[in-house]
Amino acid sequence: MISRDLHELREALGDCHRCPLGDTRTTLVFGVGDSCARVMLVGEAPGRNEDLEGEPFVGAAGRLLDELLSSAGLSRGDIYIANVLKCRPPKNRDPKRDEIECCAPFLREQIRLIDPAVVVTLGNYATRSLLDTKAGITTLHGRPVDIDGRTVLPVFHPAATIYDRTKRDDLFADFAMLGTLLSGGGA
Ligand code: URA
Q1: What HEC string does 106-167 produce?
Q2: Which residues in the chain come in under a pLDDT of 50?
Q3: Ligand 1 center to residue 107 CA distance, Å?
Q4: Ligand 1: distance of its center to the CA of 56 in Å?
Q5: What is the pLDDT of residue 187?
Q6: pLDDT per residue over 100-117, tens digit each?
Q7: Is the beta carbon of 55 within 6 A of some atom in ligand 1?
Q8: Residue 50 CB less than 6 A away from ligand 1
Q9: What pTM value is reported for the model?
Q10: Ligand 1 centroid to 10 CA: how many Å?
Q11: Right CATH number for 6-182 from 3.40.470.10, 3.90.950.20, 3.30.200.20, 1.10.10.10?
């Protein structure tokens, strides 16, 4: 699938029912932010608040994300955020393989159109989708990988660190690495 811009891509998604999540979601969460961003963040799937509001990371994990961005010298206006899945899985269950496969061409096309220098993958699902690996985020986080002319930086999912201090410290260290990449250390 090739679109001219994000608007055309959103039109192509339409009132998507390519997988059963189309029947249970409230709002399709396409993605938001700067369409020419140097940094793109990819999360897992909309949660309850995102499903209601139509924007990624507006709940508790989103507030932590704002702190992380600010620690790397960034704000939401500087970046683009999307998810592996555009629709909320019921009760926030894990994404299924066929759902990921249905949504993947749209995420790929978002990345192609935005053309970021760095893609930060938040958690296992985003990391595995983009790096085509079975390795887990505990092994991969904080290690930038160059792929197709851009840098992919896997980090823990913010929601996974809310009650885990050690992971939270690792997550801030990984965003410090993002700041370094952006200030000339590689991206
Ligand atoms: N978690 C995600 O992975 N994405 C969101 O948009 C919200 C929470």
Answers
A1: HHHHHHHHHCCCEEEEEHHHHHHHHHCCCCCHHHHCCCCEEECCEEEEEECCHHHHCCCHHH
A2: none
A3: 14
A4: 6
A5: 61
A6: 999 999 999 999 999 999
A7: no
A8: yes
A9: 0.96
A10: 19
A11: 3.40.470.10
